[in-house]
Every structure is written in structure tokens, then in C-alpha cells.
Design goal:
Layout lengths: L21 H12 L19 E6 L5 H12 L3 E6 L11 H10 L4 E6 L4 H6 L7 E7 L5 H14 L7 E5 L6 H12 L4 E5 L15 E3 L2 H5 L4 E4 L15 H8 L3 H4 L7 E3 L12 H4 L6 H21 L5
Parallel strand pairs: 1-2, 1-3, 3-4, 5-6, 5-8, 6-7, 8-9
Helix pairs in contact: 1-5, 1-11, 2-11, 5-6, 5-11
Bound molecules: N-carbamoyl-L-aspartate.
Length: 318
């Protein structure tokens, strides 16, 4: 596995939150918080990354993550190129690494990569020049590190004392990179009560999420929770036969206003989006007073600014 930290402890690549030391996470969150502005105020901007170039390579669909990486880079003064897979030479047979080397020769300083295959961000990170950074924007079901950071930041803004919280992660844990990255962030930041709430077929393999408590009963999992993170059913990672039927799923596992009342009265509701309204979450809940889903989106840009600033600012001759 490629080393994510430089010898001085600063971040060089961001491929996973697993194993990142707590001070690194805390520094990134603090830095991100510094980029958060209230809705209606002008977005934070600087020229810290002027002259740098960031390439977004997304080979899986994405709206929020791609746009927020793009805005994050631009708001720090960097230039951005977006490569759609249909346009890239990868589909014509040129290998992924040849594409990377071509872009490196064009002075790309950071690659932001989303791919459905395990190992692609790591493969690129292992092969780029020493001054080039690789950031994962979602790797298969395994990791979505900036999402984990933005989820931690969103929780921290509402519940500053993380250690005593009960966090319920609900739904398709098995196929969710969002759940895995949130898990790594929350554990490292000292949250001990993380509940993995979902039907047996959507629970992660036994060896994953060590120390998390598994609930196959929704009411029990929501009882007195401080934070409820709903997950999307990852249809694209399931065989047709394994897909739960939407109406039955909502009846058993959907977050409705009645079920939300099982949690603490001040509980917050999160969702990484895209949401399947009426399948994993009722619209009244998604748009209700306890929802922080829009805060998550806003925090996503701040977190990506913090990460880009850290991986790109340390370079000599900048
Ligand atoms: C998530 C993803 O792609 O992993 N979306 C996102 O980045 N906000 C979650 C999902 O697709 O369910």
C-alpha cells in the first residue's frame, strides 16, 4: 500500500482514511472548518494554489463529488481539467497509466480519481512523480475518504463532543464506501458507539468494522441515536436477484418521521446522496428540521479545499 504521508507527517496522497493518525484527521477538519462560510455569504477563496493544475478523472457517475472537487480547486486558484471516460484515451485501449503519464507531462499536479475497480487510485499513486498527488474520490465499495471527512466535519459542527455519541449507519453497509470511510474517521476520532444497522443480506462481511455493533432490527439500532447516517442502496454493486424490492425495503428499513422519533430528539440525519426518496428515506425526513444533508454538501467543498491545500501547498518552488 502506498504511503499516504510524507516523512514530516503531512499528507501526500489521500486514498483511504484507514490508518491515518488522529492528528492528521483533526488538522484536516480544522483546516476545512476555516473554509466553511454561512449560506448566503461569499465562498472562501484564495490564490494558494495558483499555477497548479488538478485533473479530475471520473470513470463512475458523480455530480456532487466532481463538482465540489472542481470548485475546491478553483477557489484555491488552481486550474482544473475534467476527463470524461468517454473522451479519454483509456477506452481506445491506451492504458490508465499512459493517460496519467501524458497528463503529468502536461504539468498536472494532482489527480482526483473515481473508479469502480478496487486498486486504481493506489496504482496511480504508486506510479506518479514525487511531486504529484493522488486523491481518491471513491474507490469501488472500499473507500471515499473525502466523504468520510465531510461526514465527520458535519457531525462535529452539530455535536462537538464526538466521543460519547451513538452513531447509527443504516442500510446497505455491505456495498458502501461511504460507510467504510465514515467508520474509519469516526473510530479514529474516538466514537465508540457505532451501530451497523441493516438487514442481514446488506451487513458487511464479519471481519470488517471490528468493534462495531450490528443490528438487524431498525428500531433497536435507532434507539437514542445522536446521528443517523442513511446509505443509498448500491444497485450497481448488486446482482439483479439480490436487489431488494423498493416498497418492501421502505416498509422495513426506510427512515420515516415515526422511526426518527426513536432517536434522540436532537438527532441529526445524514445522507451522502444521491438519495432514493421513498426507498431508504422519506422526503419529510430528508427535507425536515433534523436533516443536515445540505450541510454535508457545503462541507464537501471545504474538506476538498483543505485536502488539496495540504497535498499541493508543500511543494518546493511553489
Ligand atoms: C456516494 C458515492 O458515490 O459513493 N455519493 C457521493 O459521493 N456523494 C454515495 C452513493 O453513491 O451512494
Amino acid at each position: 500500500m502506498t504511503e499516504q504521508l510524507r516523512p514530516d507527517g503531512s499528507l501526500r496522497h489521500l486514498l483511504t482514511l484507514e490508518g491515518l493518525p488522529r492528528p492528521v484527521l483533526e488538522r484536516l477538519l480544522e483546516r476545512a472548518q476555516g473554509f466553511v462560510r454561512p449560506l448566503g455569504a461569499a465562498a472562501a477563496q484564495s490564490q494558494a494554489l495558483a499555477g497548479r493544475t488538478v485533473a479530475n478523472l471520473f470513470t463512475e457517475p458523480s455530480t456532487r463529488t466532481r463538482v465540489s472537487f472542481e470548485l475546491a480547486a478553483k477557489r484555491l486558484g488552481a486550474q482544473v481539467v475534467n476527463l470524461e471516460v468517454q473522451l479519454s484515451s483509456r477506452v481506445k485501449g491506451e492504458s490508465m497509466l499512459d493517460t496519467i503519464y501524458t497528463l503529468e507531462a502536461l504539468h498536472v499536479d494532482a489527480f482526483v480519481i473515481r473508479d469502480a475497480e478496487v486498486g486504481v487510485p493506489g496504482l496511480v499513486a504508486a506510479n506518479v512523480a514525487p511531486h504529484v498527488a493522488v486523491l481518491s474520490a471513491g474507490e469501488a465499495h472500499l473507500a471515499h475518504p473525502t466523504q468520510g471527512l465531510l461526514d465527520a466535519l458535519t457531525i462535529q459542527q452539530k455535536k462537538p463532543r464526538l466521543s460519547g455519541l451513538a452513531v447509527a449507519i443504516v442500510g446497505d453497509l455491505r456495498h458502501s464506501r461511504v460507510a467504510r470511510s465514515a467508520w474509519h474517521a469516526l473510530r479514529t476520532l474516538g466514537v465508540s458507539d457505532v451501530r451497523l444497522v441493516g438487514p442481514p443480506a446488506l451487513q458487511p462481511p464479519d471481519e470488517e468494522f471490528p468493534g462495531g455493533t450490528r443490528y438487524t432490527d431498525l428500531a433497536a439500532g435507532l434507539e437514542a441515536a445522536d446521528v443517523i447516517m442513511m446509505l443509498r442502496i448500491q444497485k450497481e454493486r448488486m446482482a439483479e436477484a439480490d436487489l431488494p424490492e423498493a416498497r418492501r425495503y421502505f416498509a422495513a428499513w426506510g427512515l420515516t418521521p415515526e422511526r426518527l422519533r426513536l432517536a434522540r430528539p436532537d438527532a441529526i440525519v445524514m445522507h451522502p446522496q444521491p438519495m432514493n426518496r421513498g426507498i431508504e428515506i422519506a422526503s419529510e425526513v430528508a427535507d425536515g428540521p433534523q436533516s443536515v444533508i445540505r450541510d454535508q454538501v457545503r462541507n464537501g467543498v471545504a474538506v476538498r479545499m483543505a485536502v488539496l491545500a495540504e497535498v499541493l501547498a508543500a511543494r518546493e518552488g511553489a
